[in-house]
## 1
Amino acid sequence: MKLGDLHPEIRTEFRFIPTLPLHNGLFLRVGNWIMARARAPKAIGDVTVTDRPLTHGFVRVYRPADPLSGAGLLWIHGGGMTIGAVGMDDRFCADYARDLSLTIVSVNYRLAPDHPYPAAIDDCLEAWLWFLANAGSLWVDPQRIAIGGQSAGAGLSACLAQRIHDRGGVHPAALALLSPMLDDRTAARRELDALAHRVWNNRSNRASWTAYLSQPPGAAETRPYAVAARREDLSGLPPTWIAVSDIDLFFDEARQYCDRLRAGGAHSALYLIPRAPHGFEAFLPRSRLARDLFQASYEFLRERLALSRGPDGGA
């Protein structure tokens, strides 16, 4: 993908943002080693930050200053299910907590290949159940908790919603999916390799799906809740907002999943980001494209979680 393919607003900055070798096992191990040793903040501005243990991982809780809205968001970080940690989204979660008066719980789940499926989705389910069990002490209404994530975290969010639907109990009020990684069959399309998508290309995509599924992507069958787009029946799922760029590797699978949700009777909206690389908002959060993206997600969460606006009409 050429620099000229990018939106003019972010083209100059992306001259200096490399596509990392996320298919390289040594790179992943070194990156995860560094992130695992990052010191957890006690607060980010006026948002308090605390970690609470799970069976295998932990959750990080972000609580804004009063008044709280009584709503919450379970957040799942990205990284292809092979790299990443809650700390990479500290600023993002703190901003959402402060701007929307949300209590946010972010899950630090186990990563492949050391912990392939179902480790990550099991940890995400435990985080969801932890949030419900502690909703009272967090001053959160269990009926007003959304689930969201970015990239692989968005794909895990979609899988988690399916698993919650099937097991019964309290369902999420909504899903907010940023550039979701939904379908392993994309990785099996070798013709996409030549497009060399920026930030996240099909080579990294194939390596990550292989590590997580313990089989080549695109196989005839996958296990339940491993690949969101492989589920045949998408009826009964929560209202879902999906954001994706028209030049993202995941564009086709995101659009198709959105269409299938609508066909299954779910409220589903597709927010299209023009000519931006995958995950650009993490690199350029102050760009107009990123601000517009965040504002659109705010609007969706305000509506679905019954959130009030600030006195100036903003968050």
## 2
Amino acid sequence: REGAIFSARPPRSAIARLQMAQDNYHQPVLEREIVEFFASQSAGVILDATLGGGGHSASLLAASPQRRVIGIDRDPEARDAAARRLSVYAGRVRIVAATFATMVEVVAEQADFLNGEPITGVLMDLGVSSHQLDESSRGFSFRADAPLDMRMDPTQGITAAQYLATADLHDFVRLLRANGEDRFAGAIARSVLERQPQTTDELTKAVERAVPMAARRRGHVATRVFQALRIVVNDEVDQLDLGIEAALNVLASGGLLAVISYHSGEDRAVKAALHEAATGGCHCSYELGCVCGAVPRIILRRASAQLAGAGEVESNPRARSARLRTAQKVLS
């Protein structure tokens, strides 16, 4: 994979103007909390495993002149936007086309950029960005009619429409139920597969036909169906499991891990993976204590997820569903 190192640093006033315009591509959530969490790791390299438009990375770089960042993302539009935003940080940034499940390989390939420095932090900001939702041609949202694509990397894999063309009814029902669509999962799955939608508008209409008006909950009736398709098209479940394991492998002793999730299934998976690492996989009886010799890999920094404050939610409604979980790799 090829990375990009930037080599020119403009005056401080230009940096300030750039940071004020961060939300042109995507407004990062829990930005202050992320900067504060990584404050103790002022040197070394942070791996931003879901770079997006570079909002979190910009704030982390601005907070410490000794810090450097490797940012990875599979979306070429995101990488381009991040390259523009982070161009003010000279040789302190490298951007790589990759998924966060491949962090170990990325770190190995960026030995020249690391120059012997450790990975002192990993940030994973999961889900879809505001830009991806707003860019109607990507097919992530029901807000505008567009081809039913939903791929994070539009150059690889199958589209959502292609997935539906070969999907098994029972598998699709299970997928919808796993994403919170319980009562009408069967009816929705049959309606969608019978109509084989090719656009977001056709998918929305297929869902609406299956759910009676009186039974519709608050919010758009197709929200969870779009979410389920996006997750399966981008293999997000396996990517998350592999990504957290990769993060723990690349982190130096004492390094910090922060994971932001946006829906309950995602947060449950993060919580379970971090619990497994914090206990070393021990399943011994709590009353009897551990007798299996399990060795914890991390220490949880908080017992529960951290939420966005009321002020941030008001200015950025997407932050309402954000859940931040944090951990530190055990000192060796």
## 3
Amino acid sequence: MRRPFGAIARSAWARALVSAGLLALVLTQIDLSQAGERLSGGRWGLFSAAAAIDFVSFLLAAWRWHLYLRAAGLESSPATAIRAYLVGTFANTFLPSQVGGDVARAFLASGSGPRLRAATTVVVDRATALACLIAVGWIAAAASPGEVPGELWAALGAATGVAGVGMAGAAFLVGSRRAARLVPARLRGPRREIAQAARACARKKVLAQTLVAGLAFQGLILLAAWLLVRAISLDLALPALAASLAPVLIVSLLPVSLGGLGVREGSYVVLLGYAGLAPADATVFSLLGAASFLLASLPGAVALVVRPRAASPAGEGRSAAEGTR
């Protein structure tokens, strides 16, 4: 069982086939005429607003990540963090691998510094952002529990459990002395560096700041999704939508498709179906969400092409002259 799954995870062509197959399966189960009616009657101003809010959320998320970079001792300016984050988001959207963008932003943010520390901040940023999305889901669902079907409560609970187990396992591997003894001698140095960066990111002051920023960031993501719901006039309650976001995200992170395409649509069809949404409506919502995210990530292509301005030759000359005195 491991070998086929591993082969799919490593092969972009295999994941493309899985995405195409899953999308085809979803499309065979929906009323295409109903989907066309939703799109033809859509309010595209709301779609544009959703894409704009997604982009603003990227900027907030980049500033939040900058706090982790600074805590880990990396001399990265907010502008550098924003550029790296936008490039990473663009890469995650357009590359076959969902981790390629994370590698890119760790590389760009580290500069000539320790890239292992930068990579650690990316992992911490991802994990805590997921925790914030789960928290937003619980807060919204608890505000109006009657509008959330039992199946969505269960899905949100399962997402919370999966995230909790994953974070606890990572904390054990990084912080436990028992786990340290299991690491080969040649890897103990890198593990120590990862542990130091992770502990720096977990300081109370840093976590307090990033928690507030993370809740605001995920609140914007929920708002953008809600605007898409309104754009195509879906009969879906906000608490039910909020409860579905984290479970769908976790499932779509499985490395079996291109950027979660197909997996995400199927997940929304199942989960939002419990809230009374037709498969066609759930599919249109999911694809619009992907399109909004794609549109919001396009500035990352500009950030990738336009490099930061290097120090002026005059400034370099002054530095060289001062060094010879």
## 4
Amino acid sequence: SKENTERIKKQNDKKISIIIGNPPYNAVQHSENENNKNRKYPAIDKRLKDSFAHLSNTQNINRLYDPFVRFYRWAMDRIDNYGIVSFITNRSFIDSRTFDGFRKIIERDFDFAYIIDTKSDVRANPKIAGTTHNIFGIQTGVAIMFLVKLTA
């Protein structure tokens, strides 16, 4: 309805103070049989290209289009001048060359970044396989990041 459309538009125009979540991370589908293709989001993907990808020194930026990175881009655009973004995600943003532009944006746009690296990447350390060392029982390393913005 027109009323509902107006309400949604007003809601989408407002800034948010705190965004917390556990977005999916699935950069690359290994086969069509997985039936888990990432959807395209033209507006967010353009923002990724113009920010994280633009500032990156690496040639392969495909992993920047992982859903968790899209969530970060969306949250960074929606957060108020005084706010917090916090996600539990893949830890690849910490030291992967692909994420150098991502890290530059964080350094530029946020006053503080607190990162909890669970050191649970099975591919980096096969000795920790299984649910004993990775609370999610997955191979991908997990990190929790808190981004704090205190200035306009």
